[in-house]
Amino acid sequence: MDLEEIRNEVKKAVEKARETCPLVPSITNTVTINLVANAQLASGGSAAMVYLPDEGEGIGAICQAFYINMGTLLPVYAETLPRTARALQAHHKPWVLDPVGIGLGGLRTVLLKEFRETTPTIVRGNASEIIGLANLWGLDAGIKKEGGRGVDSVDTVDSAIPAAKSLASFIHGAVAVSGEKDIVTDGNRVIRSFGGSILFTKVTGSGCSLGGVTAVYAAVSEPLIGALTAVNMYNAAGKRAAEKAKGPGTFEKYFLDEMYTISAEDVAGNPMEMVEE
Amino acid sequence: MDLEEIRNEVKKAVEKARETCPLVPSITNTVTINLVANAQLASGGSAAMVYLPDEGEGIGAICQAFYINMGTLLPVYAETLPRTARALQAHHKPWVLDPVGIGLGGLRTVLLKEFRETTPTIVRGNASEIIGLANLWGLDAGIKKEGGRGVDSVDTVDSAIPAAKSLASFIHGAVAVSGEKDIVTDGNRVIRSFGGSILFTKVTGSGCSLGGVTAVYAAVSEPLIGALTAVNMYNAAGKRAAEKAKGPGTFEKYFLDEMYTISAEDVAGNPMEMVEE
Amino acid sequence: MDLEEIRNEVKKAVEKARETCPLVPSITNTVTINLVANAQLASGGSAAMVYLPDEGEGIGAICQAFYINMGTLLPVYAETLPRTARALQAHHKPWVLDPVGIGLGGLRTVLLKEFRETTPTIVRGNASEIIGLANLWGLDAGIKKEGGRGVDSVDTVDSAIPAAKSLASFIHGAVAVSGEKDIVTDGNRVIRSFGGSILFTKVTGSGCSLGGVTAVYAAVSEPLIGALTAVNMYNAAGKRAAEKAKGPGTFEKYFLDEMYTISAEDVAGNPMEMVEE
Q: What pLDDT is recorded for position A154?
């Protein structure tokens, strides 16, 4: 696919999510769970969040795609996440992993290691998280690092490209790295998407909700297109929202408005470049 | 009561909530807990959320009304919900049940079955949830169904009228069914309230927060009036908010503004019709 | 320090938080956790929320300051809070305690009693909470009371001044009492900060997020200045937001915008008076 064909697929993904309203449940952190759900609704999906093992399994079996975000782990996650991941694998459901906070605490490390066997379809994170996960799984990351600082990245997007490619190849899916200039890769192609706003860094859950919306598009398209559609949506709608916003408070709300109203053409037409093909 | 008398009672409920600031705690899901609290505050109530069994019991004993929402169950709910419901029953406190996600997972089914003995004063839900609860409790629902799709309804409001009437009669209280054209019933009378906005379906927690606000009005009026006041408030304030909003992000904020500033007369005067009397 | 010197320190705290982006994790309630994080980001800090014991310890050891809020306790808090507080003490990290809901439930009382040994650097609360905590710790509070009504205060700020001074002296730190006219004290000096808006009482988490932002400034200044900078920020930015807002919905968003954009000079110049020195 060249960029023109990719744009056409992105456009179809935006339209299909709006038309089919895929059911995309999440197990996600309590900090940003509301924004994840609202962003999924704004993109056209249906959100449903759970904590209990049999609920993860049950809704995992009937969903169109799933989102797992590793922030604010609770004790019950020790059982819920592995059982949900196995159900998703058994039912061949696409799912997105967001390895938030990698490196912090024992349970997070155990669970992330287990996902090496029940691999996600897409991994989304900041540069430090992507580098950390590639290292945790023993893949070639180019750098030896375990994670970031709290939930912040201490690495540049470009420095995470080798890790992102290794991860994407390993999972036979796609990886999106968020930062000043986001990239998406399927292990071979590396596509950069431009736009967005510095205000995303001042709204908690920008990344988490991008993960949730990635899962919405993963429900209606192949991994690379799903990841890229979400990143393009955030960059295009975020840029427009920032033009109206006076700060992070209004930005978050205008962003949801823009995501809900932007045309599929404008998401597909967001500035991109093929870095490697 | 004819519609004119009902409107007068609705007006009094809006005023009394604003004047007396009733304490209306909740046990509710983590996705929309913030909007539930903010909507309760905007309507004039005082919000307080808990998870632990003795906290549910303790604040249940001193509150004016209570709200229980079945979304995002945690393991501790297995003990907290029954103990809280028994405390509410023992202290004759009105409470509102929102059977979100009925049909998903083992614990939710067990807990909802137990509420058949410690009945709520008002049940609020979408059509599929109301039909599901009537069936779970072995009441005449007109249709055999266990729930919806995730948290979404797959049934129309009108198809849930028999289930709503059965439930309301059984609990000797009221039932509100949310959807395109909401209805409220006490088992005999069925009143339809018009207005609102399609944007409510794009804001997570529209229904949950309506449940929380229903509990605020249940603290200051009889069940049918409490349920109807909340539905009218949402329809009237929601319609106004939608006229200003550019999408779901700004809609949520304008809606809280409108709920806080709308006159009691305008809530009472919201378009309604008596479907059955 | 006279008020002029204090203003200069406040100005420096605002600037330093923006320049250094301190890592300020929280263990806080699920109702307002999103607003806490967004307010911390708007003030220049980095937020990270945790629930598990080893995560509290781990991030407590590497953070610049920490925020503990006692709302919506979960079972795991029985272990997480003491272990986190001990880690903060061992690593000499400043931390802010918000004794939300004091008086409700057994676990909250046990945990708050334990904090008498691993004392916070700053306590922030409404008048009833401050009076309740001073009594729980056996300090001279001037009044015998255990708490408020739900999460609301039933006491005036001025009636809590003796309790606030006792607490501040005991912890060798600072205490901030929120209400119509906030005060901050280090046990000797009592400073009143004016401004804000009645709309803060209609937005859930105004107090919680003030606690989180207090921790951000505690990371970059001494306790009295940290507490006062946060209170001044809320009063100055809140007053501006209220001039634009049409109700509590838009107020919350404008407030975050104002916090992000207000000058350090304007925060430092917020109306204050020295009540006792």
A: 86
Q: CB-hemisphere CA count at 13 Å for A102?
A: 29
Residue contact C31–B46, C-beta within 8 A: no
Q: Do A204 and C34 touch (CB under 8 A)?
A: yes
Predicted confidence (pLDDT) per residue in C106-159, tens digit: 999 999 999 999 999 999 999 999 999 999 999 999 988 877 777 788 899 999
Neighbours of B275 (CB within 10 A): 15
User: Taking a C-beta distance cutoff of 8 angstroms, is the pair A25, A59 a contact?
Assistant: yes
With 80 as the cut, is the pLDDT of residue A127 above it?
yes
The answer, for C59 touching chain A at a CB cutoff of 8 Å, is: yes
- CA nearest to B50 within chain C: C72
By C-alpha distance, which of C159, C122, C120, C167 is closest to C140?
Answer: C167
Q: What does the pLDDT read at residue B147?
A: 77
Residue B182: CATH number of its domain: 3.40.1190.20
CB count within 10 Å of CB B243 equals 10
For residue A102, what is the nearest residue in chain C, using CA coordinates? C55
Q: Which two tokens stand for residue A135?
A: 């290292």
Nearest to B246 among A46, A54, A257 (CB): A257
Residue C23 DSSP SS3 = strand
Residues of chain B with pLDDT under 70: none
Q: How far is CA A7 from each of CA A37, A60, A266, A276, rounded to the nearest angstrom?
A: 26, 30, 10, 17
Is B276 domain-assigned?
no
Chains contacting chain A through 3 or more C-beta pairs under 8 A:
B, C
Under an 8 A CB cutoff, do A248 and C257 touch?
yes
Residue of C nearest to B25 (CA): C150
Q: Does C246 touch chain B (CB under 8 A)?
A: yes
Q: Is residue A146 part of a domain?
A: yes
Over residues A176-183, the mean pLDDT reads 95
Distance CA A124, CA A137 (A): 15
- pLDDT category of residue A269 using cuts at 50, 70 and 90: very high
Domain with A254 in it: 3-270
Number of domains in chain C: 1
C78 touches chain A (CB under 8 A): no
Phi, psi of C133 (to 5 degrees): -70, -40
Judge if ipTM > 0.90.
Answer: yes
In this complex, the residue of C38, C55, C62 whose CB is nearest that of residue A248 is C38
- C277 domain-assigned: no
- Is pTM beyond 0.95? Reply is yes
Has residue A1 got a pLDDT over 90? no
Please tell me the predicted confidence (pLDDT) of residue A76: 98
Kindly state whether residue B274 falls inside one of the protein's structural domains: no
